[in-house]
């Protein structure tokens, strides 16, 4: 592989949407910089001799022929969009990495049995429409025109309006991938967490992708004067909220071994004044786990704790269930192939689950899917501070190359 080409590509793409003041990358889905990056990717694919097209949604998909083009392709890729003031590697690494796999195969004139497709998904981040992984939802048939009409950005534009105006190709049945259409999907990504760095591992082989169950909670007590209301006569919604937040933490703590995390990330007290007892609090609770069963166990413990705390404190609780996604298991055979590749290359690795969502979780619904993680500095992502060592990128892409070559063999079944 050629690490200089990879670093050049990363730099080129990160010129699109670079903010000089913050140092962040702003390739927000369907805005100018992000579409330019998609176009640039399509040109690089063309240069590499691939058949490339945009689908109606604006995903870029390129194909390298196999020895037997009736076999289902192995698909590699990730997303090209970022959050506001995002980092230089989230998503982009997997896109540039996929392109490097093709360039490696071309350079060494390696013909694979299965065709290989590489993809740059758009709109993976929820930054614009409060919903994530939309490009991969689209190609797997889980995002209809009706769904797109219901999603609006903060300027009131619907996703459907944007997609249909851009019309990067005509809507087509051919855009969709069904079960059996792909041999496998493989995504290289930065970890976006601190585990690989802390454990001094080069590569993370992802076995599960955790999914959230979310709640909105409104607590109603009684707003009154902070000076003239004696302690025993108060109905303080904020102290109740505080106790709930601590309880959420401690319940999640006790299930930490099962891969559970839970967060109260948003609290809004009312009237939020120095001299008033807060009579109302709105809060958002996010519970995640890699297995639905243990996560739901925790969710019900949290529901129970809310009930107990608010009853004791005589506070009214209105708990709204915002819905739960299903955690996804990735393919163990591909994980084993990646493990062997790491062994051969003498890279250290660990099996792990992903706390964050990725396009791979949609792809896993239609084909065997897997993910390869590399460490990122202090686990920081979605920030201009996102940082990765060149040697880590190199190891990540080498692992991607090795796994792809194996997967694209006719006699390797997953
Ligand atoms: Zn990402």
UniProtKB/TrEMBL annotation:
Cofactors per UniProt?
Zn(2+)
Q: Which InterPro entries match?
A: Amidase_Cbmase, ArgE/DapE_CS, Bact_exopeptidase_dim_dom, Peptidase_M20, Peptidase_M20_dimer
Q: Which residues form the Peptidase M20 dimerisation domain?
A: 215-311
**SUPFAM superfamilies cross-referenced by the UniProt entry:** Bacterial exopeptidase dimerisation domain (SSF55031), Zn-dependent exopeptidases (SSF53187)
Give me the residues that bind Zn(2+) 1, please: 79, 90, 189
Q: Which Pfam family, any one of them, does this sequence belong to? A: M20_dimer
- How cofactor binds (record note)? Binds 2 Zn(2+) ions per subunit.
Highest taxon in the source lineage: Bacteria
Keywords recorded for this protein, A-Z: Hydrolase, Metal-binding, Zinc
Binding of Zn(2+) 2 occurs at 90, 125, 382
**Sequence positions that bind allantoate:** 214, 275, 288
According to the UniProt entry, its GO molecular function terms are: hydrolase activity, acting on carbon-nitrogen (but not peptide) bonds, in linear amidines; metal ion binding
Q: Which family does it belong to?
A: Belongs to the peptidase M20 family.
Stated name of the protein: Putative hydrolase
Per the UniProt entry, what species is this protein from, by scientific name? Staphylococcus piscifermentans
């Amino acid at each position: 592989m050629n690490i200089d080409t990879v670093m050049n590509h990363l730099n080129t793409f990160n010129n699109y949407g670079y903010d000089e003041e913050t140092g962040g990358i702003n390739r927000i889905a369907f805005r100018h910089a992000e579409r330019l990056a998609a176009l640039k990717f399509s040109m690089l694919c063309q240069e590499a001799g691939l058949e490339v097209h945009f689908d109606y949604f604006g995903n870029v998909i390129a194909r390298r022929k196999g020895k037997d083009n009736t076999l289902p392709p192995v698909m590699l890729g990730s997303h090209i969009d970022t959050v506001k003031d995002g980092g230089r590697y989230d998503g982009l690494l997997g896109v540039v990495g996929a392109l490097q796999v093709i360039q490696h195969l071309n350079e060494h004139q390696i013909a694979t049995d299965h065709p290989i497709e590489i993809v740059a998904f758009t709109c993976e981040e929820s930054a614009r429409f409060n919903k994530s992984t939309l490009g991969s939802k689209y190609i797997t048939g889980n995002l209809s025109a009706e769904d797109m009409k219901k999603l609006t950005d903060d300027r009131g534009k619907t996703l459907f309006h944007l997609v249909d105006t851009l019309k990067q190709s005509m809507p087509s049945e051919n855009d969709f991938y069904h079960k059996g259409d792909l041999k496998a999907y493989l995504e290289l990504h930065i970890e976006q967490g601190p585990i690989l760095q802390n454990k001094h591992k080069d590569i993370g082989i992802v076995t599960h992708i955790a999914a959230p169950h979310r709640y909105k909670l409104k607590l109603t007590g009684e707003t009154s004067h902070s000076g003239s209301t004696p302690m025993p006569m108060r109905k303080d919604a904020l102290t109740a909220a505080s106790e709930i937040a601590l309880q959420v933490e401690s319940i999640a703590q006790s299930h930490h071994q099962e891969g559970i995390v839970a967060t109260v990330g948003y609290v809004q007290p009312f009237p939020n004044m120095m001299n008033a007892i807060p009579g109302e609090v709105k809060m958002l609770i996010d519970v995640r786990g890699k297995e639905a069963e243990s996560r739901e166990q925790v969710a019900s413990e949290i529901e129970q704790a809310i009930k107990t705390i608010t009853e004791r404190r005589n506070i009214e609780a209105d708990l709204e269930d915002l819905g739960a996604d299903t955690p996804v298991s990735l393919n163990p055979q591909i994980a084993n192939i990646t493990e062997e590749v790491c062994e051969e290359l003498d890279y250290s690795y660990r099996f792990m689950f992903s706390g964050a969502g990725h396009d791979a979780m949609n792809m896993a619904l239609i084909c065997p899917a897997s993910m390869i993680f590399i460490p990122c500095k202090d686990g920081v992502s979605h920030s201009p501070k996102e940082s990765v060592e060149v040697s880590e990128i190199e190891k990540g892409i080498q692992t991607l190359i090795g796994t792809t070559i194996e997967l694209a063999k006719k006699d390797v079944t997953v």
